[in-house]
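G., the chain you wanted modeled:
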Amino acid sequence: MYSKKAYLRSGKDESARRYHPWIFSGAIGRLEGNPEEGDLVEVYDCQKNYLGAGHYQIGSIAIRVLTFTEEAIDKAFWKKRFQSAYDVRCVLGLAHSDTTNTYRLVHGEGDCLPGLIVDIYGDTAVMQAHSVGMHLARKDLAEAICVVMGDTIKNIYYKSETTLPFKADLQQENGYLCGGPSADLALENGLKFHVDWLKGQKTGFFVDQRENRALLEKYAAGRSVLNMFCYTGGFSFYAMRGDAKLVHSVDSSSKAIDLTNQNVQLNFPGDKRHEAYAEDAFKFLDAMGDRYDLIILDPPAFAKHRNVLRNALQGYRKLNAKAFEKIRPGGILFTFSCSQVVSKDDFRLAVFSAAAQSGRTVRILHQLTQPADHPINIYHPESEYLKGLVLFVE
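Predicted structure as tokens:
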């Protein structure tokens, strides 16, 4: 079907036979057809038995497998995959909710579309490619979104300027694939927020914390809340709706603090319980005293590559140790890691080490992960990237 082929070394086909969607460069014995980055490549074992097909790329992960059956990867294929992803969001009650109009439509490998992220904000879809292959297919992908979702989506914004492999030198600029600028207001569990999909982090908002924010709301009543690494303030306005006594939001980015203040004003105009600070997290924690009895630690990924894993774990230990040192007795700590290369066990060990260093009694109340619209492909455990703990600190 495709002229470009990869033949795996003897004994290196086991993971592909278990439907793992990554073919590593070291598993490839030879390439046929001189594939370039982004090309569709068929994968065979050393006996020339068909294993699958996917996008070729330069690097450790050499092929992201799109299908394990012999089929054309064309417009009909993309439509089928988007329809499957959309059907799951309908089952989850997210696609037609009166109280939530923001959710993840496509979660890469979790939706059998490796290298692609699509988040929905009202009538705007924000699409992000993490592979050259998905970048080259962007117009067909946008068309598939429109076909599947109909007139519920009016705009598709392509935001891949910072996520595509820099060595590919694509010089991609962000922009609309269809439609144009529209209202940036979105709705999550009845709360409103501005989304900066033009210049904000990720696709504009961290939709993966929706259920964890809702859980925080249940613990907030009467508490003094500190939301570290607040970004656009999601946890902060949930805490306010949960009747927190006061809420302080901290982020090193002044733009993030501006958005946090806007979002708080949207939901709680004139409310004096909230203050926001553009400051370094560790400096703020050092100086804050013991005024808080509910702290959220939701830092950006400390490790994006395995070669910095050790430093990342030290960072998590240091950050959590400071929270254990400062939080009031009877306090509750929500602590997270969004680093894919940090395993659940690694993160736990870092937090447990920090707790032991503090000498305080700590109980686990909840073990948290990503919501169901960020599904984990059962054949690709790496899809599970968000880890969290809710801890009661005596």
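The mean pLDDT is 93.

Shout if anything looks off.
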